[in-house]
Amino acid sequence: MKKRIWGFAATAALAALVAVPASAHRQWMMPSSTVLSGDDVWVTVDAAVSNDLFYFEHQPLRLDTMKAWAPDGTEAAIENKATGRYRSTFDVHLTQKGTWRIASVSDGVMGSYDLGGKTERLPRGTTTANLAERIPAGATNVKTAESNNRNEIFVTVGEPTTTLFKPTGKGIELVPVTHPNDLIAGEAATFQFLLDGKPVAGLPVTLIPGGIRYRDQLGQVDLKTGADGKVEINWAEPGLYWLNVTTPQTERAEGAPEPATPQRRASYVTTLEVLAP
Amino acid sequence: MQLSTPARILGGTIGLGAVFAAPAFAADPGTMDVTINIPRLKVAEYHKPYVAIWVEKAGAKAKTVAVWYDYDMKANEGTKWLRDVRQWWRAAGRSMTFPANGITGATRAPGAHKVSFSRAQLGATAPGAYTLVIEAAREVGGRELLRIPFTWPAKAGAGGRAAGTTELGAVSVAFR
What is the pTM of this model? Predict the structure, then answer.
């Protein structure tokens, strides 16, 4: 099993094109635990953007849009927030039994328009809500594409529940076939991914085990969702895994210009804890 | 210090070294050519690797001959990741200051790259056994290290090779 996972990195060599990255570095959240017991239960979460997983060595993840939801769907407080030079940290008081969601979701609109013979880009922070007011009168050739980014983790007190997994229908979302807080090394897990509420085949799924700093190879596994949007993962080792699902990105040569029409983009990031059997 | 192009920096010192070495041993090689292949990788996020090249000799301090890194970022930010070239960092890098004249160079794209070093640059003026070490570390990627032993005085022509499997391709040395 181990051999198979590490093999991927080596076979990835030698191709004529490289996909140009949408953004550098990896963003992640790391909970103090994912499987919890007890009566007065808390979880502490570290959140950062870094090269190595899960080491905070580059930038903190901003907490502006960080939210938590209790198993019954009510929003819960993010407590003891702090953002330092390299990481943010916060606590969630897990006052209910079941599966909690902690997520940072951002939606935006990218695009351009022509005005007075010049092509202008839509400014940062444009959303579907303010798009109309950001396009000036007289603008022509308006091109827009939506982008949705979701970075979320799940933690469970007692028995795992699934009430929180009702899709919103926006961006990429995870539907548990295997519950994300019920992962054991040696047991295969299946997740379904939806794009805008529908299962989509061919979404690239990247899986990287934590602990990069202490090994030479990334150990990255590249998968694609099947026809039903599902992907099966065989966990070689227990530990924390970083999982990233994105919309397919058009490959273009390094340095090639961006495509004229903005592309619909969505990204999903989660941290999964695989326990030892 | 001016760092317009890395090729010019290396080129300048090579020429100097060759002049030094040539008169004493007219027939003996005075220059080592190193050919380093950087593999093209199909990954979602690719950054050209940081590469350090240094010389080891038993009982002597490691001698760095080249470091390819993001030397032209604002506030010298690219030096933050030099420690990821971790064996070199421990052997030599951590006691150096950057940019380092004649050593600092830009990162290189996938493909074959030939660089040349004089015997003096290599710190190999004393006859004996040496090891050339090449270490590559890629941002959000992996790390690999190759060693090529050589002796000085050297014989002209091909002088050893090693092949990487992940972050480095074939690396070979030749003497002239």
Answer: 0.79
